[in-house]
Amino acid sequence: MSSHQGTAGRSADGSAGDADYGRIGGGYTSYRQPEPQIEAAIRDALGDVRTVLNVGAGAGSYEPRDLEVTAVEPSAQMRAQRPADRVEAVDATAEDLPFDDNTFDAAMATFTVHQWPDLSAGLAEVRRVTRGPVVVLTCDPTLLQKFWLYEYAPEAIDVEAGRYPPVDTIVSALGGGMVMSLPIPLLCTDGFGEAYYGRPERLLDPGARKANSAWSFVPPEVHTRFESHLTQDLANGTWDTNHGTLRNQSHFDGSLVLIVST
Predict the structure, then answer these.
(1) Alpha-carbon distance 169 to 162, whole Å?
(2) Which residues make Cβ contacts (< 8 Å) with residue 108, sequence separation at least 6?
(3) Which long-range CB contacts under 8 A does 163-166 form with residues at least 24 apart?
(4) In b/e form, how buried is each residue of 106-132, taking b as 16+ CB within 10 angstroms?
(5) What 3-state DSSP class applies to 44?
């Protein structure tokens, strides 16, 4: 889910942010299915609208089925993975939306703003084409270190923290709004990193890590060290001694936030 002004800097697949989904996007939807609790929060935030623009739409996660959706996604790999019951995505970027002013009742952007090379331009464009609420699902970079992964692969967390824009920056660029923390359910079906807070074994699956773009920015030796360290700590009980209560914790208050600008 990425964006960029025009076509300059876009990869062969069309990905325009810092992650190349032509390389890492294969199999993405096997691990990243919309989580119903998050989906409900987004739909509630959109409110009583008819048309909604989804920017950096990827494979279509969280697009409301009861609304008229227009999707924008520059990556051919991600557009190709959109289910048959989703609208075909427009090949465009956040910074250069091919729509008139105030075209849509609402807009949404989920797990994508951290990939926009020109965040302020992208958010200004989203606001330009939207009459009503703009809803952004993102992570607060100041809260990422709460996740136990920081003990095992700090490089991956540090990369992610450096990519996610400050929440206040997003709110300001949208002209104001409110920020809500979204607790992450234990069996979260959307496999972003913190979704596995109580299921550490899942992150030993290279495919699960591949579906989280931060891992594409760390060298192979970090993956190897992480797998070895976590495997050892799971086998000898160290992880469960330190974090085992998470296995039965219904929700985790991590970095996930929903920004709603009306």
Answers:
(1) 14
(2) 42, 46, 52, 53, 54, 55, 62, 63, 134, 135, 136, 137
(3) 163/18, 163/114, 163/115, 163/214, 164/114, 164/138, 164/139, 164/140, 164/255, 165/113, 165/114, 165/119, 165/138, 165/141, 166/141, 166/142
(4) bbbbbbbbbbbbbbebbbebbbebbeb
(5) helix
Mean pLDDT by 10 residues, the chain (262 residues): 40 49 56 94 98 95 96 92 93 97 98 94 98 98 97 96 96 97 97 96 94 91 98 98 98 98 96
CB 258 within 8 A of CB 42: yes
Question: Tokens in use for 141?
Answer: 């970079």
Task: Name the nearest CA neighbour of 148 among 187, 110, 203, 190.
Answer: 203
Strands 134-139 and 256-261: antiparallel
The helix/strand/coil state of 53 is: strand
pLDDT at residue 15, as a whole number: 46
Q: What does DSSP say about strands 106-110 and 134-139: parallel, antiparallel, or unpaired?
A: parallel
- Residues forming beta bridges with residue 90, ordered by sequence position: 72
Query: What is the gyration radius of the CA atoms in the chain, in angstroms?
Result: 18
pTM, rounded to two decimals? 0.86
The two structure tokens encoding residue 151: 């003990």
Which amino acid would we find at residue 95? E
